[in-house]
Each structure stands twice: as C-alpha cells, then as structure tokens.
Write a structure and sequence with these properties.
The chain is an alpha/beta fold and about 325 residues long. It contains 13 helices and 12 strands. It has a single domain, classed as 3-Layer(aba) Sandwich (Rossmann fold). Helix 3 packs across helix 4, helix 4 packs across helix 6 and helix 6 packs parallel to helix 7. It binds adenosine-5'-triphosphate. Adenosine-5'-triphosphate (ATP) binds next to strand 1 and helix 1. Keywords: ATP-binding, Cell membrane, Membrane, Nucleotide-binding, Transport.
Length: about 325
C-alpha cells in the first residue's frame, strides 16, 4: 500500500438524534479523510459532535435514538454504510478499531486480559487458541506491559488505569487495523501516564502504518501528535488545516477562540498580562439551529449574513479550509 493511500474517506456525513425536544443534527454534513500512517485530530468543545462522528464511522450510533441519515464512510474502498450488520462486524476490530476514554467500558471485568485479546483475534483470524494466546502475549509486550505472560492471566481490575489502557490498545491493534480511532484516550489517566500512552499510540501507529483519528479537547496534544486537524462546532466542520497552518493562522473565529483559551499559548505568549480567554456564550442547542453559522451569536465579527446563510467551507490555499465569510480578514498570527 503506498504511503499516501487514503484509508478512510468520509463524505457529507449526517447523523441525527430523535429526542423529545425534536430532531437534531449531531453531525451535519461533515467530510474528511485519513491517509495511511497519518494522524487526524478532531477538536472542539464538549457536545460539538466529535464522538458521534467517530461512532458513525464505526457504525455504533445507538439506533434509536440516533441514525446516520446521509453521506458515505469509505474504508479501504468499501462504503461501510452499505454493509449489512454481519459484514460490519467482520470489519470492526479487524480493519477499524476504536479505543475509548475509559477502558473499563470496553474490557470485560470477568474475563482475563489474555482471553479477551485471544477472542478478539479469533473472531477475525483462523487460528488455534494457543496461537491466538501467543498473539495476545506478543501484543501485551508490544504495548510495554511488563511480564506480559503473567499479566495476560489477570483480570482488568488487577491492572492500573494506565495498564488497562495499554491492554485496550493491544486489543485494538491485535488484527493490525487500517484505522484506529482514539476518543479522548488519555483523559481518564494521570498526567504523567497520559504522555506515555499518547507516545505509545503514536509510536505503534507509525510502526504499523495505521491511520489514526485522535479525538481530543487538548490542543497541546494535537500539536504534539497530529498532522492535520478538523475543528467542529455544533455538528459542523468549521475549519480544516495542517497542524502548522492551524496554529500559525487559524481562520475561523471559533478556532481562534479555542487557541486563545489554550494555556500553552498563554505560557509561550509574549504578553505579560495574557489571561485565559473564555469563549463567550454556550454551544447552541442542536435542535432548530438557524440556517446560518451556529457560531454567529458568539462571534464578535458576526455579520447579518452569517445568521442567515451558512458560510461555505472555502479553500484558503494549501488545503486550509474555513467556513467563515470573513476568514481572509480574521486570519492573522495570534
Ligand atoms: N445517545 C444519544 N442520545 C441523544 N443525544 C446524544 C446521544 N449521544 C450523543 N448525543 C448528543 O449529540 C451531540 C454530540 O455529542 P458528542 O458526544 O459527539 O459530543 P462531543 O463533541 O464528543 O463531546 P465530549 O467532548 O463531551 O465527548 C450532543 O449534543 C449530545 O448530547
């Protein structure tokens, strides 16, 4: 497979939820792609649709109340939205895997770690139990769990939080998927362990050539690990750029707000009186969103046009896209 090959191509994805207060668009016309060996970060504040985007790619949106109502999710040339449930189960954990914030939600508490990885391997590979167990131990070693033979015989509660997350990573990568989705994989861990787990994910991803979607609130993590970023707001992709371009020249006012509220930017900034900047207002309710830019009520630059009409994602050069009528004016180094 050539290095530049696209492993995932998501086009115009739309996922809705039917709730008591009406239908809302949790993911609204979102497109992006991930290449082999590349890390794409998805950032944005709580509730903007990052996790639902990931769950849509995995076809794990709970239906009801949710449903994917439009678009395509093409993994290695196959549109996952066309597959029946059995075909999708054969791909999940095999060509595409996901790790979550809290490993205990995915690990079975009454099953030994080694057995869980063994089962995951045997679900997709025609191997004996013994071979699959050896693979499980090999994977535990790969994720740097000490004494992997012994740890494989232990139950999740016998492992520390960091080790459980390593075990999850081992399970997710056991079948060498083309794409790994990591949804806030380190948020539940101590700060020192967070850095180790992130470094491990990135190292293994490079070693195995896996495409990675990293969902995070933390722009510092993005700067360290990703090559490209998409910024979501109220279910929409409002900006997409390489990490360098996004940090040097954020074009959407929401992205600029995110940057300004990032402690590292302040620590490295030149102004002595720099303060943590709050993005004013609340994320809008995703029901009855106005036709225009949802960020308009929070954007100091809002013009009447933004409230009436959604600005299209425009290419500002070098594949830097931003959905803002005034992106050309707003772009300036922070
Ligand atoms: N099962 C569900 N039923 C109804 N609404 C849901 C469900 N799951 C998610 N949502 C809603 O979809 C929207 C997007 O949620 P999502 O979890 O993708 O946000 P997020 O950006 O990942 O936030 P966070 O960073 O807090 O995880 C939110 O308004 C959320 O309340």
């Amino acid at each position: 497979m050539p290095a530049e090959e696209t492993v995932l191509d998501v086009k115009n994805l739309q996922t809705v939820f039917f709730t008591n207060s009406g239908l809302f668009k949790a993911v609204d016309d979102v497109s992006f792609s991930v290449r082999r060996g590349e890390t794409l970060a998805i950032v944005g504040e709580s509730g903007c649709g990052k996790s639902v985007t990931a769950l849509s790619v995995m076809r794990l949106v709970p239906d009801p109340p949710g449903r994917i109502v439009g678009g395509s999710v093409t993994l290695e040339g196959t549109d996952l939205l066309d597959l029946d449930d059995a075909a999708m189960r054969a791909i999940r954990g095999n060509r595409i895997s996901m790790i979550f914030q809290e490993p205990m939600t995915s690990l079975n508490p009454v099953m030994r770690i080694g057995d869980q990885i063994t089962e995951a391997v045997r679900l997709h590979r025609n191997t004996t139990r013994k071979e699959a167990w050896a693979k499980a131990v090999e994977m535990l070693r790969l994720v740097r769990i000490p004494e992997p033979e012994r740890r494989a015989t232990e139950y999740p509660h016998q492992l520390s939080g960091g080790m459980r997350q390593r075990a999850m990573i081992a399970m997710a990568l056991a079948c060498r998927p083309a794409l790994l989705i990591a949804d806030e994989p380190t948020t539940a861990l101590d700060v020192t362990i967070q850095a180790q787990i992130l470094a491990l994910i990135v190292e293994l991803q490079k070693e195995l050539g896996t495409g990675l979607i990293l969902i995070t609130h933390d722009l510092g993590v993005v700067a360290q690990t990703a090559q490209r970023v998409i910024v979501m707001y109220a279910g929409k992709k409002v900006e997409e750029a390489t990490v360098e371009a996004l940090f040097e020249n954020p074009r959407h006012p929401y992205t600029r707000g995110l940057m300004a509220s990032m402690p590292a930017v302040i620590a490295l900034g030149s102004k002595n009186d720099a303060r943590l900047v709050e993005i004013p207002g609340m994320v809008p309710s995703l029901t009855n969103l106005p036709a225009g830019c949802a960020f308009a009520p929070r954007c100091g630059l809002a013009v009447d046009r933004c409230r009436a009409e959604y600005p299209p994602l425009q290419d500002w050069g070098d594949h830097h896209f931003a959905a803002c009528w005034r992106a050309a004016e707003t772009a300036a180094p922070l």
